[in-house]
Design goal:
With 428 residues, the chain is an alpha+beta fold. Helices cover 42% and strands 11% of the residues. It has helices at 49-57, 79-86, 121-133, 135-156, 164-167, 171-180, 187-196, 207-230, 238-241, 243-249, 256-268, 271-285, 287-295, 301-311, 342-345, 380-397; strands at residues 63-66, 72-76, 92-93, 161-163, 317-321, 325-327, 330-332, 337-340, 398-403, 408-409, 418-420, 422-427. It starts with 48 loop residues before the first helix and ends with a strand. This is Cytochrome P450.
Length: 428
């Protein structure tokens, strides 16, 4: 751990705690003996991938990769290259898939769900939901989110040792549950299913069992959302606005409202809690950072932005080239799959000073955790307010926190997820 305090009023606090129990957020180690295979999913639960990405950023151009079934893809790892790919939806299309694990004919929701469409269709779908997602709309949600999250805190208050992930399984739903129009009695099952739908949670499981679990998780989510849509959800909820997307897309062969409801839920539920999980791991292992954190009157946007940069809950997003082009000197033929590694870009030494240190008041902060351009996360304002409320409540209620075991990570090359986070907490 390395700390630099430059003044009592506005300390430049920097933390880089190389914790072996947290492979995805620790200070990088040499990866000379590590494979540069970016697809293989099990490694994301056990290895410090930041060391791999760091070494690959030193190589020229995009990196040529191959999936286990022989599908070739290109990997953009530098901030500038990721920026170029994500900022050009005309050349790099989202209307195929955003995850490396979904290939073949593409995602079943391609061309219909908000995140799997390109302009001019994408902004038309986005306009359906924009009134619910503005900064002003997010501020109107603040009181309700605070009340629901406070109630959740009350359920764990006084517990000295617990698995944070399990105890707070409904945490994302305190932010998005009512906004989505999902009944509270479905929050626990929905929260658990959204994590399991992103990857494996048990390294000892067979690949076959993992696929079964993923199928069951997706089926659970679709069932919950299908029931919500059938029950005429409130018009001022995401689910209540989803039926309007059917007319916008104009594809009667698919259940477009259900596909968009699913897209919103899967976009919102994993991102916020995983940013919180990764930040808590850091706060639990760094006394100086914890001391700084507890001295703040409230959580400001700079801390939230640094938490997002540090955690980078989405490792990559996938695009497909629509025309021959060149990125970083690498020829990209039309039809090529290009993975933009956001987590790598957010630790790029060319953009971030001391990228492997957590600087709570870092400014400017050009992180790409919410994406970029037309596909920048529509729910960013709601997510930011939700994280701010959580950290304020944590500061208000917790005197000290420490790890009570090793965190366990999701088996996924897409989501940088924590599935078990044992904490020892001293409550105020």
């Amino acid at each position: 751990m390395r700390i630099s305090l430059t003044g009592p009023e506005s300390p430049d606090l920097m933390s880089s705690d190389p914790m072996s129990s947290d492979p995805m957020t620790s200070d990088p180690i040499s990866s000379d003996l590590l494979s540069s295979d970016l697809y293989e999913e099990s490694q994301y639960a056990t290895r410090n991938m930041h060391s791999v990405w760091r070494d690959l950023r030193k190589s020229d151009g995009l990196q040529r990769q191959r999936t286990p079934d022989g599908q070739e893809f290109l990997a953009a790892l530098r901030h500038a290259d990721v920026f170029e790919v994500l900022n050009d939806p005309g050349t790099f299309s989202s209307a195929y898939s955003t995850m490396l694990t979904v290939r073949g004919d593409g995602d079943v929701a391609a061309g219909a769900a908000i995140h799997l469409t390109d302009p001019p269709l994408h902004p038309e779908i986005k306009r359906v939901f924009t009134p619910l997602m503005t900064a002003q709309a997010a501020q109107r949600l603040e009181r309700g989110i605070t009340d629901r999250m406070s109630e959740l805190f009350d359920t764990i208050r006084g517990r000295e040792s617990f698995d944070f992930c399990e105890a707070m399984i409904t945490l994302p739903m305190t932010i998005t549950g009512l906004l989505m129009g999902i009944p509270q009695e479905q929050w626990a099952v929905t929260g658990r299913a959204t994590v399991r739908a992103m990857g494996g949670v048990n390294a000892a499981e067979s690949e076959r069992q993992r696929r079964i679990d993923l199928f069951e998780a997706h089926t659970t989510i679709m069932s919950v959302l299908g029931n919500v849509l059938e029950d005429a959800p409130p018009a001022d909820s995401v689910s209540g606005r989803c039926p309007a997307t059917a007319e916008v897309v104009g594809d009667p062969s698919r259940d477009v409202p259900l596909l968009n409801a699913y897209a919103f839920l899967m976009g919102a539920n994993p991102t916020v809690p995983q940013t919180i999980n990764q930040t808590l791991i850091l706060l639990a292992g760094d006394e100086d950072l914890w001391s700084w954190f507890t001295r703040q009157e409230e959580t400001d946007q700079r801390f939230v932005d640094e938490a997002l940069r540090w955690a980078s809950p989405v490792n990559h997003v996938l695009r497909r080239a629509t025309a021959d082009t060149v990125v970083a000197g690498t020829e990209v033929p039309a039809g090529s799959l290009v993975s933009a590694w956001i987590a790598s870009a957010n630790r790029d030494e060319e953009v971030f000073a001391d990228p492997f240190r957590f600087v709570p008041d870092r400014a400017p902060n050009r992180h790409l955790a919410f994406g970029l351009g037309v596909h920048r996360c529509i729910g960013q304002h709601v997510a930011a307010i939700g994280m701010k409320i959580f950290f304020d409540l944590w500061r208000k209620n917790v005197r000290s926190v420490a790890l009570d075991g090793d965190p366990k990570h999701l088996i996924s090359n897409f989501l940088n997820g924590v599935v078990c986070l044992p904490l020892a907490v001293d409550w105020k």
